[in-house]
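Page 47, continued from p. 46.
Same chain as before, 318 aa.
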Amino acid sequence: MDDGTDPVRDLMPDDSRIRYLYQEHRLTVGAKRNLACREARGEFIAHWDDDDWMAAWRLRYQVTELLQTQASLCGLSRLLFDQPETNQAWEYVYPAGQKPWVAGGTLCYTKAWWQEHPFPDLNVGEDNHFIWSLPADQIIALQDNTFYVALIHPGNTSPKRTQSRRWHAYSPARLHSLMGKDTSSSTSDLQGAAGSQAPASAADGFPLVSCIMATYNHAHFLPQAIQYFLRQDYPNKELIIVDDGPSPDLVDIPQDKRIRHVKLDVWTPLGRKLNLGIEASRGQIIQKLDDDDYYHPHFLTTTITALTGWDPQPGVGT
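Result:
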């Protein structure tokens, strides 16, 4: 299911088991999943991320588990990650004692359950909503996690916060051993693709967040404030600076299409400036930023997580 600007039908092998569906208009991730599930002819559906590694026995293992347990869905709550560029690896471990969860890229479930509970029309968190529509006893977190390795690369859409307590260092040699001969080809192909496509793909699946910064005569604060915005690890963002200060030249605004400067000729109340910034925004979500405060690089990711209920840390293949 492809809704990109460059269709890849010509890359599809001549195999009756593979069907390529192209949509001319952009859809949310949830809508694309529903279209693909509707087209599916099988009793079981597995998610198949386009930038991750999977063992040859993955489907056999997951379908057998569903048949034996009569559960509706299974996947991994402990996920292996490989970062070829730095030769580092991690195991992400979802904490015990929380609501059942498995990673979206590892899902395998019955089509019957999807027919009763389709994915919500969302770009972010659609997998979690789908998983949590199930009773806890219908979700199986598989014990053997060696059939799936998520690759970390510049084109990932979800930031990987590998310094958090959920991430544990893993032996790269051990990881590459289980991937076998697939390691070199998959990682090198991925690095090449990520290098050429990162600017476009970095925002896929994330709602645009419009950051509104109202300022007055604070030119000495703004260079640092702009840097705080630029270093945010949330990938799909824009900054609108609404300025009613007396100076005609605010500061040297970076030549970045994500940053816009709205200059007002007269002093304007703060509320009106914020409204003007929102009117000029293109995003689905508005975030107010002050020009003289510090913002941690994870600030936007944290606020969007709280607002949407989506957890960016376990994101797989994104």
